[in-house]
């Protein structure tokens, strides 16, 4: 028997005790599987707070109010997991109300003597245990070899007696199965390796379908790493979207983190959605095991990034916003090790800038987001993707806040069939699409796209952006982003019309990510978009990017592309710091996730009161450096209008 009912102290204790007694009688006390309960105590708080903490790792029967979970069982032994891993995965998939009740100590009630376990239910549990826990258990199910290699968990639904089985990845934060070791200076060192590419203009070494992603383990309602499932939008007229979501707890409480893929086929979109979900999973919280350094900036300044280089909020924000405090160099904060590609040395980075849903009270000087986080099949692929994302957002903000006239790309001269199809699909929805060369002082192609609703109704403006070493790929990325949003934007604006109208009159009410894009669905915001409709000039893609295409090296080595972007950023006066975020699950899939920081580039922020870009020197100097104006931007020339980045 796992624990005595007197020690349980949980609402599920009577039912758990009855089930354990039945199993003890059938299998014998020494051979019976141990039973623990799920949903009665906060497992994520650690074994000390869990009444079943000592017994949970070895338990193979787990009772909830709705079902009985049996496992882990099976697998090929290459990725062992325990009952605590199962409990942690299961709890993260609960609803907001369930998680808040468990994790915040809010008052909650439980039906006494529930769940009832009549004999036909306990007989089913016995049969399931005999079927999967014995040495002659069945082969693990699963749609892919990666799923079948993992330990499995079988769920018996107490209302229907239906049995379903799901793969289980060990949880890297499990105190029993998580990786050992601390964050170290030596572990941060990295070397760019030669990575042969399929061709010079391809920056992904293999297609998304080539990764062993274990989809059944990533999205399922019992053990899903990324969420309880995925959904697709078969009515979308522009792309084939697939998305999923999960609640992640951070300094702002439980946040619904959504991950998605938007391609022209649902299978490809699903793979892209999983990759984005895995990137979010690695970026929100550190999942690499071990402790991080806690220290005052003054004590580590010689080896550390100065947080001021990444921007702070205005003094008014720190005065008025109760969730943030000014950075204090004498206050200990968590640090993680990264590697400078410019100086070829390890660098300490504030953990708050790397893991954007984690934080402590001492380091609440800024709210970061996923900007600069990227996933790839290798370090070089991930680093390149992260740098391009930072360059894209920086350029967009420079043009927006600086009011910089851009060169419009003549889309009638584009012959690429994929691009033409996207433009035509937007036209069928009643939108005209514009695209702009958004380079300011960096040579890497950045394209901003703008869709304008012809009849001027709700959802009138939608922006997107893309960056790539290949200008056509950058254009496709920007258009794809726009096409993802325009089918839904009119409805979103109509649903929130009074709220958005209020934001248009008072920008301080722009608080969340969705507010920025949806605000520009209002026709009243047309005056702020007008600079894009009066471009500096209109040129073809060939005219715009000939000098770039002729000057840049086009090799078959991905590492050369990484160096090209790095050198462009270094020439502009910036460091490039890489922090490895890769989780054990991702390593098993052959994936790598990084957070890249380029101190001094404009960071993308959401919420009008929290705009670091407005305070940073680069906003004032970049257009002059890029030859787009003769002088630095004067304070009176800065546009104090929320950006529309989606």
β-sheet strand percentage = 15-25%
Overall average residue pLDDT: 92
Number of strands: 19
Describe the global form. globular
Radius of gyration: 26 Å
| Span of the ends, CA to CA | 54 Å
- Biggest sheet, in brief? 6 strands, antiparallel
Q: Low-confidence runs (pLDDT<50, min 5 residues)? A: 1-7
Q: Roughly how much helix do the residues carry, as a percent range?
A: 25-40%
Structural class, judged by helices and strands? alpha+beta
- Number of H- or I-type helical stretches: 22
Can you tell me about this structure?
This protein is α+β, with helices and mostly antiparallel strands and 646 residues long. The protein is built from 22 helices and 19 strands. Strands 9, 10, 11, 12, 18 and 19 form a 6-stranded antiparallel sheet that branches. Helix 12 (379-402) packs parallel to helix 20, helix 12 packs across helix 22 and helix 13 (417-428) packs parallel to helix 14. The protein is globular, with a radius of gyration of 26 Å. The termini are far apart. The model is unreliable at 1-7 (pLDDT under 50).
Compact overview of the structure:
This protein has 646 residues and is of the alpha+beta class. Helix 12 (379-402) packs parallel to helix 20, helix 12 (379-402) packs across helix 22 (617-625) and helix 13 (417-428) packs parallel to helix 14.
Map the helices and strands:
Blueprint: H1 5-8, H2 13-27, E1 35-37, E2 61-63, E3 67-73, H3 83-92, H4 96-104, H5 119-133, H6 145-148, E4 152-157, E5 163-167, H7 185-188, H8 215-218, E6 231-232, E7 240-250, E8 253-263, H9 266-284, E9 293-295, H10 297-300, H11 315-320, E10 333-340, E11 345-350, E12 373-376, H12 379-402, E13 407-409, H13 417-428, E14 431-437, E15 446-453, E16 461-467, H14 471-485, H15 489-495, H16 497-505, H17 513-519, H18 526-529, E17 537-539, H19 541-551, H20 558-571, E18 577-580, H21 584-588, E19 592-597, H22 617-625
Parallel strand pairs: 1-2, 13-17
Antiparallel strand pairs: 2-3, 3-4, 4-5, 6-7, 7-8, 9-10, 10-11, 10-18, 12-19, 13-14, 14-15, 15-16, 18-19
